[in-house]
Amino acid sequence: LLCVLAMSLGESVWEDSETLSTMWSVISMRDTATLKTLLDADETNAFLRAADGRGPLFWAYEFGHVEGIQLLEAAGVDNSEEAADGKTPTLLGEENVEANVERTIALKEAHERQKLQQQQQQQQQ
């Protein structure tokens, strides 16, 4: 309630919460469906900020979660807001490009291994 009240006054409360921990986890795993569910359940979730000033849009850029970035920016989250360390979401994205490419390749390889295992199991049946 305090967060909603502060947001209605144009202020942002920066504090860690269970909701933010869940959102970090969902965004870091690039789970678009669950992120959308969280945003649909409470539109203010898009604007929450952790104690360090980072929030969902920061993490979406940090983890290269393109669909998450689109959802959060469509909800009105400003990508030029700064965290406590002065970094913006877009700067985090730029700093993590190489890691995101590696993460994308690893996810694709894991998906391909899972698909191959499923095919092998079907052939054994």
Brief descriptors of the model:
7 helices; disordered N terminus; 63% helix; mainly alpha; elongated; 125 residues
Précis, in short:
The protein has 125 residues and is mainly alpha-helical.
Unreliable parts? 1-10
User: Largest sheet, described in full?
Assistant: none
The SS-based structural class is mainly alpha
What's the end-to-end separation, in Å?
55 Å
Assign a percent range to the helix content.
55-70%
H and E string: HHHHHHH
| Principal-axis shape | elongated
Number of helices: 7
**Beta strands, count:** 0
Indicate the multimeric state.
single chain
Q: Averaged pLDDT, please?
A: 87
Strand content: under 5%
Radius of gyration: 17 Å
Task: Walk me through the structure.
- The protein has 125 residues and is an all-alpha fold.
- It contains seven helices and no strands.
- Helix 4 packs antiparallel against helix 5 and helix 4 packs parallel to helix 6.
- The longest helix is centred in the last third of the chain and has 28 residues.
- The radius of gyration is 17 Å and the shape is elongated.
- The protein starts with a helix and ends with a helix.
